[in-house]
Amino acid sequence: MDTVNIHEAKTHLSRLVERAAKGEAFIIAKAGKPMVKVVPLDAADVRPVKRIGFMLGQVRVPDDFDSMAGDAIEALFSGRS
């Protein structure tokens, strides 16, 4: 990744923006100290897609899941705790 100083960035802003738009990220530095990183807008949208069912076969739901602790839950709602 290239690093350019502020003066060079001001002088060649159009060229640098074109490079960033094509996917080339770069850093702008002031007195040799990195200040900002310039990346294309599309780079922010690139995220891995979360998959549903990625743990298929690794997790087991009990057959009585819907009725588990049904008596205790019913007692809490009816005030018989």
TrEMBL record:
A Pfam family per the record: PhdYeFM_antitox
InterPro entries in the cross-refs: Antitoxin_Phd/YefM, phD-YefM_TA_antitoxins, YefM-like_sf
Family statement drawn from the similarity comment of this UniProt entry: Belongs to the phD/YefM antitoxin family.
Function recorded in the entry: Antitoxin component of a type II toxin-antitoxin (TA) system.
UniProt name for this protein: Antitoxin
Organism: Bosea psychrotolerans
